[in-house]
Amino acid sequence: MADLAALTDDVLAEILLRLPSLRDLARASASCASFRRVVSSSSFLRRFRPLHAPPPLGVFCSYPAGRGGTAGSQFHAALSPHPSAPLARAVARSADFSFAFLPPPAADWLVRDSRDGRFLLDRPRDGSTAFTEVAICDPLFRRYRLLPPIPNDLAASVRNPYVQRGGDGDSQSRSSEIFLASLSHDSVNEEDPAFTVIWMACCRGKLVAFFYSSESQQWRVLSPPEHYALSTRRVMGVRLGQRNHAHACFYWMVTLTHRWLVLDTCKMEFSVIDISPVLSGCVMMFSNQITTLESSDGRTTVVVSDVFRPDKRCVLYFYAFMYFRDRWQLLNRVTLPEEWGYRFRGIIGSAERYLFIKLDHPKENLNDQSERHVEYFSLDVKTMQLGSFCRTTLLTVSEAYLYCGFPPSLLLPSI
Question: pLDDT digits over 32-91, tens only?
Fold first, then answer.
């Protein structure tokens, strides 16, 4: 057998990149100094990230202001027996999910998105709930970057945007949709990987959108879809539902319609499609009744939750398509446990082949405040097996984000 010491770091890196799982890599890196040296190098970690999907580690919840007037947020780590529990505990110990490292006052900042280990937060700027101050954060390494404001010549096209979140005029009200696009793995600067931020506002008769690239460090205009395709013909105007993502595309249900707004971030183009044939017979009262996840063959899987049924059961319908204008193929129909019919509160996200479902507290706990809680379960879409993921005693949550990431020992700063 060849002496391990005779292998160069380049050869060791090629071997370690072929390990089948994150757990195997962590064990290998702890076994000897030479393995650890290779695994901890920035060049290895930059190659590793695109090859291994980050595991789900927990749920990040934002909660509205209570009687004291203070809103907040909290990270809930995956619990045993979920396989991510040890990694989740390590991340919870290492990261600052209170974002205390941001410019004060901390209570002004609101989490708007989480992707690729980064968080996007914003706070009102000059009293505006549309043109906010935006920060990109890395809670593990306590780093952040403030984005420049949207230039006046672009902002002039936005007039009286409809409220997309909140609406009570408090610190959590927002009149824009702002989020992170997927991480660029082919960034020229390995020490400062690129990211893109999308900003959108629904105004009377039009949707306005801009995007910011960390590489160009400029805000640019995104061509919107035709306004008539979005119009709901209602006084309240256009309001977007839960944002879903798969294969570099983002999807929103246009509230009170059976239409989907689609943004292809590879082409930076919008489309609007009618999905009413698929939703026929389903009462769609909540935007988290429909979600997307990626399939390994390049197809997108769409899960539709049929909740408001006469039999009080919750049924999930699984469809698939290669291109979103294709005819959707029905793959499966799954009836969730009977007691979940009244507890089901939607699907908060997906990771690889798993869906993450939010359940309200059981009926037997209604009169016992100390026992009331919210649970999150994972559903393996291949085996249709359910498993407990995490739980929280926060009963009123504004937003819940599925958080995926690597253990601190296998991460580099993302900001």
Answer: 888 888 888 888 887 887 788 888 999 988 776 554 445 667 899 999 999 899 889 989
231: buried, middle or exposed (CB in 10 Å: 19+, 13-18, 0-12)? middle
d(CA 122, CA 92) in angstroms, rounded, equals 22
Q: How far apart are CA 61 and CA 92, in angstroms?
A: 14
Number of domains present in the structure of the chain? 2
Residue 191 buriedness (CB in 10 A; 0-12 / 13-18 / 19+): exposed
For residue 301, CA distances in Å to 171, 205, 305 come to: 36, 31, 13
Beta bridge partners, 404, equal 56
What sections of 233-281 are H helices per DSSP? 276-279
Q: Is 314:367 a contact under the CB 8 Å cutoff?
A: no
What is the domain range of residue 341?
Answer: 53-410
- Cβ atoms of 164 and 173 within 8 Å: the answer is no
Residue 42: inside a domain, yes or no? yes
CATH label of the domain that carries residue 108: 2.120.10
Decide if 96 is inside a domain. Answer: yes
Q: What is the 3-state secondary structure (H, E, C) of 36-85?
A: HHHHCCHHHHHHHHHHCCCCEEEEEEEECCCCCCCCEEEEEECCCCCCCH
Question: Measured between alpha carbons, how far apart are the two ends of the chain, in Å?
Answer: 43
Give ∠ CA 329-333-339 in degrees, rounded to 5.
Answer: 155
Q: How many residues are listed for the chain in this entry?
A: 415
Cα–Cα distances (Å) from 136 to 56, 106, 118, 171, 340, in that order, read 21, 15, 7, 19, 37
Percent of the chain as helix, strand, coil, to the nearest 5: 20, 35, 45
Cβ(290)–Cβ(300) below 8 Å: no
Same domain, 111 and 98: yes
Stretches where the chain sits below pLDDT 50 are 1, 67-69, 187-188, 232-236
Predicted TM-score (pTM) of this structure: 0.86
CA distance 175 to 165: 7
How far apart CA 74 and CA 392 sit, in angstroms, is: 9
Q: Check whether residue 255 and residue 337 sit in a common domain.
A: yes
Residue (of 358, 404, 350, 348) closest to 114 by Cα position: 404
Based on the domain organization, do 39 and 101 belong to the same domain?
no
Q: Residue with structure tokens 């292998």?
A: 7
Helices (H), 147-253: 152-155, 227-230
